[in-house]
Design goal:
The complex is a heterodimer of chains A (254) and B (307). Chain A is an alpha/beta fold and 254 residues long. Chain A contains six helices and 16 strands. In chain A, helix 6 links the parallel strand 11 (180-184) and strand 12 (203-207). Helix content of chain B is 30%, strand content 19%. The chains are: A alpha/beta (254), B alpha/beta (307). Chain A binds chain B through residues 1-2, 4, 42, 46-51, 90, 210-224, 232-237, 242, and chain B through 27-30, 33-35, 37-38, 50, 56-59, 62-67, 69-72, 74, 76, 79-82, 85, 221-222, 270, 272-274, 276-277.
């Protein structure tokens, strides 16, 4: 079930340059949300029409935490919201990560840049053995929050912390092994993970993003190329907002 | 207070009776499955489906969507499942609701259009809307909609095969839309709908790149409303068949503007993306407006702008 709601801002803080964490109180959405799902957040500015799809970072009772980068007018507006302010949202949207895929197996959670945010609730939810690898360009954020849920390795492009290089460089350097990979991050990173998982015959679940309009699968704005024929159009296009945003690695062509 | 006035919002389009003048704009609402989870489809005058062709179309590369000031650009490229799956899945879904079904038809060639129109002849759909105005595909679509001879020819060809009343959907990307409107009427169109999107563009200055993979896209949303309203007004005065008005309608006041300008019915498109309840709110708003001004029948409002 998805809901249109007016949520109330509970807290707002800047985590890093242009990155904000906002906790909102919802009626139903938090109660039904799962790790890897997202919400549509609507601007109050009549000139910014389209909802901003923002991934869910944490779920706590009737509260949701969303962490987002200020990328334009809409997210700039959201970053100015203060406790008590109202915010119009729809959700929970998308399929989310399949936690059961890691049952009795060892999971490897890989996040890159702002792609790490939807992985925090996943890290919490996966009860078995797990490793976490986080990749950044330079500045490291939210590492401590992940450390509460498993061992964390870091990669930075400039080498200022952890392994110098990307997330897969860190995986190789540390000799990290796993049965199931969950990943979210920029497309080149996900492409690398697809290949890495295919070579080792590992199950991989990757979360994608794209420009969206409706957020619910009606407008066909946010498709990705799929190996199999899709159910909606009978071609090779999966809807990221509705069929995803999480796909099996071999299911999509990046 | 006196007796409660009886208000009729019923609209008759070429013999098809809609309970109210509010319908969805093609391409913004799928075939209603997704929005049906959020709103009551029984409240709509009609659902106009996303364009369907004779075979599945994969559409354009992404990004297909870009936001602009007060509007948005799309270049979906008419991705659709083709008429077979559409008849098997989408029509039975819509039949569950007390609303009229208008199927938007697209094609690359006249034969493509006719194949779909003939196929729909035996299906329980109420009207056909022929899309000769999509700006996002190279063949078909707008290629039929920018030349009055082509407009008349495709309209005639469709009318010869169609078992349901035919709506021709016009493009605003022309010098004089009334020329196209008259051509469609001459070809036998039962109803006209306008406007489709205006061709536009957006460039990301940081990446020095087009915002859309298709480079150009169709502009929609409140930003285009004044242009759409003017074209609906001109067209309604130029033809004698009913006109369905659309282009940036987001609230009941917008809808009433189009009706006063001459639209017999209205379509709501982009507003669905940011207010999924927009269609239902607009239908209620029109009824309240009629009550407020003592308008017993909505037909009294059509083209009733006075000065």
């Amino acid at each position: 079930m998805k809901y249109m709601e007016t949520a109330i801002v509970f807290s707002q803080e800047a985590l890093a340059h242009d990155i904000y964490s906002m906790v909102i109180t919802t009626e139903q959405i938090a109660k039904e949300a799962k790790p890897g799902q997202f919400i549509s957040v609507y601007s109050r500015d009549g000139a910014s029409l389209l909802p901003r799809p923002i991934s869910i970072c944490e779920i706590d009772g009737n509260r949701l935490r969303i962490v987002y980068r200020v990328a334009g007018k809409g997210t700039k507006e959201f970053s100015g919201y203060r406790p008590g302010d109202q915010v119009r949202i729809m959700g929970p949207l998308g399929n989310g990560f399949p936690l059961e895929a890691a049952e009795g197996k060892k999971a490897l959670i890989i996040g890159g840049g702002i792609g790490i945010f939807p992985l925090l609730e996943l890290a919490k939810g996966l009860k078995g053995r797990k490793e976490i690898v986080l990749g950044y360009r330079d500045h490291v954020f939210m590492k401590e929050a992940f450390e509460a849920w498993g061992p964390v390795s870091v990669a930075t492009e400039d080498g200022s912390q952890g392994t110098k290089g990307n997330v897969l460089d860190a995986v190789r350097e540390k000799g990290i092994e796993a049965d199931v990979i969950y990943a979210c991050g920029p497309a080149p990173m996900l492409k690398g993970i697809q290949a890495f998982a295919a070579e080792r015959n590992l199950e991989a679940w990757i979360s994608l993003e794209e420009r969206m309009a409706c957020g619910i699968g009606a407008c066909l704005g946010c498709v990705c190329k799929s190996k199999e024929v899709d159910h909606h159009t009978n071609v090779h296009n999966k809807r990221i907002c509705k069929d995803g945003p999480v796909f099996r690695g071999e299911e999509v062509e990046l | 207070m006196g007796e409660k006035m009886t208000i009729s919002t019923t609209v008759n389009l070429a013999g098809v009776e809609l309970k109210n003048p509010v319908m969805t704009a093609s391409g913004t609402f799928g075939s209603g499955q997704e929005y049906g989870e959020l709103i009551d489809l029984n409240r709509l005058g009609a659902v106009v489906t996303k364009g369907v062709a004779n075979v599945p179309w994969p559409g354009n590369p992404v990004p297909r969507i870009a936001e602009t000031h007060g509007g948005m650009l799309n270049a979906i490229g008419l991705q659709n499942p083709g008429i077979d799956l559409f008849c098997k899945r989408d029509i039975p879904f819509l039949r569950q609701f007390d609303t009229k079904i208008i199927v938007n038809v697209c094609g690359r060639t006249t034969e493509d259009y006719l194949e779909v129109v003939e196929r729909l002849g035996d299906e329980p759909v109420d009207m056909l809307e022929i899309n000769i105005s999509c700006p996002n595909v190279k063949e078909g679509g707008i290629a039929f909609g920018q030349d009055p001879k082509a407009v008349e020819a495709i309209t005639k060809a469709v009318k010869a095969k169609a078992k349901q009343p035919v709506i021709m959907k016009l493009s605003p990307n022309v010098t004089d839309i009334t020329v196209m409107a008259k051509a469609a009427e001459a070809g036998g169109a039962d109803v006209l709908s306008l406007i489709n999107t205006l061709t536009g563009m957006k460039i990301d200055v940081h990446k020095r790149a087009f915002a859309l993979a298709n480079r150009t896209g169709g502009l929609s949303g409140p930003a285009i409303k004044p242009v759409a309203l003017r074209m609906v007004y001109q067209t309604a005065r130029a033809v004698s068949c009913p006109v369905i008005g659309m282009g940036g309608i987001a609230c009941w006041e917008d809808a009433v503007e189009f009706i006063l300008a001459g639209a017999a019915a209205v379509s709501v498109g982009t507003a669905n993306f940011y207010r999924p309840g927009a269609t239902v709110e607009i239908a209620e708003g029109i009824e309240n407006y009629m009550g407020q001004y003592g308008v017993a029948d909505i037909s009294e409002l059509v083209g009733a702008v006075e000065k």
